[in-house]
Amino acid sequence: MRAPAFWSRKPRLRATLLAPLGALYAFGTARRIARATPVKVDVPVISVGNISAGGTGKTPVVIALIERLTARGLSPHVISRGYGGTQIAPHRVMPDDAAERVGDEPLLLSAFAPVWVARDRAAGAQKAVAAGADCLILDDAHQNPGLAKDLSIVVIDAGVGFGNGRVIPAGPLREPIQKGLARADHVILIGTAQAQAACRARYPMLADLAQSAGALKPLAMGMPWQGLRVMAFAGIGRPEKFFQSLHDVGADICATRAFGDHAAFTPQILSRLEAEAKSLNAQLVTTEKDAVRLPMPMRRRVLTFPVRLEIADWSALDAALPGAHT
C-alpha cells in the first residue's frame, strides 16, 4: 500500500471521520500487549521498531546494530515476522530463498547475519539460540509482545515525525505516541540536523528518552553516480527519500516510479519499466530492499543504490548494547 497524503498533514476531515476506527485499532494493539506473557530467553534481546507504519529507516538500523555487535565478538541473529512472505514455521533464511517466501527485508538482512523468519517470534528465538546466537535483534517488533526485551529501540524519521498524529487508518501510527514511547528505552532520530531539531521541538516528550542521531548515507562502492542518466523505481515506505538521495549524489534522474511498500514486481511491471528506461536511454536503479524482489536475470540489469546508517556519537547506544562491559 501507499501511505495516503492526509496521513502526513494536520488532521483533516478524512482523518477525523476515520478516527473511531483508529481508536479501535489502538485499543486492539493495547489489549494484545497487555494480555501477553512475554517469553524470556537466555540471551539479550534487542527490539528495533517504530510507532509509525513503514519508511522510518528501521532496516539500516538493524544492519548497523549487526555490525556493531559483531565487532564486539558477539554472534547476533535476527528474528523477523517475514512480512510479505508466506513462511509461517520458524525458518532460517538462506541465500536461495525467494522474497515471496521469506519477505524482502529478511532476505536483505541475511547477507549480514543469520536471520530467522517466524510468525511466532518466541519459537524463532529459541531456534536461533539453539543455533548459536548469543544475542537477538527483533526486526519490527515494538508492538509484538511475544518475547521479553532487554532493549527497545524506536526509530523515527525526523523529516516526517509522527505525521498527523492519528492511528491507522486515520493516520500513520500503529499506536498513540505516548503509549509507544512509554515502552521505548532508546530513540534513534534519522534525518538532517535541522529535521532532528524540528522533531525534538514538535515532540518534547522525546527529551525523556535516551537518544542517538543518525543519517542515511550512500554506501561508497566506486559507482560514478554523478551525471549518470537513470530511471529510478522503488516500492518502499517512502520512495521519495530514495529519489532524493539519488539526486543528492548527482544522478541525472529522468523519471521516477513509486510503488507501494513491499510491492510485487510482476513480469508485466518489469517489462514496462525496462521499456520506459530504454526509451529514455536511462539506466534502471532501485533500492537494496527492492532489488531482492527482482528475478535474478533482472537484478543483473538493474543498479542497486545501497545506503547505510551513520551515527556520529554511539556512546549512549553503545552503553546499552550487549557486551558493553566485557
TrEMBL record:
Say yes or no: keyword Glycosyltransferase present. Answer: no
Keywords carried by this UniProt record? ATP-binding, Kinase, Lipid A biosynthesis, Lipid biosynthesis, Lipid metabolism, Nucleotide-binding, Transferase
Q: In which pathway does it act?
A: Glycolipid biosynthesis; lipid IV(A) biosynthesis; lipid IV(A) from (3R)-3-hydroxytetradecanoyl-[acyl-carrier-protein] and UDP-N-acetyl-alpha-D-glucosamine: step 6/6
Q: Which residues form a coiled coil?
A: none
Source domain of life? Bacteria
- Provide the GO MF annotations for this entry: ATP binding; lipid-A 4'-kinase activity
The record lists the catalysed reaction(s) as: a lipid A disaccharide + ATP = a lipid IVA + ADP + H(+)
Q: Does the keyword Nucleotide-binding apply?
A: yes
Residue positions binding ATP: 52-59
GO BP terms, alphabetized? lipid A biosynthetic process; lipopolysaccharide core region biosynthetic process
Concerning InterPro entries, the annotation shows:
LpxK, P-loop_NTPase
Described purpose of this protein according to its UniProt entry: Transfers the gamma-phosphate of ATP to the 4'-position of a tetraacyldisaccharide 1-phosphate intermediate (termed DS-1-P) to form tetraacyldisaccharide 1,4'-bis-phosphate (lipid IVA).
- State the similarity comment: Belongs to the LpxK family.
Q: Which NCBIfam families match?
A: lpxK (TIGR00682)
Please identify the protein, giving its name as recorded: Tetraacyldisaccharide 4'-kinase
- Record organism: Rubricella aquisinus
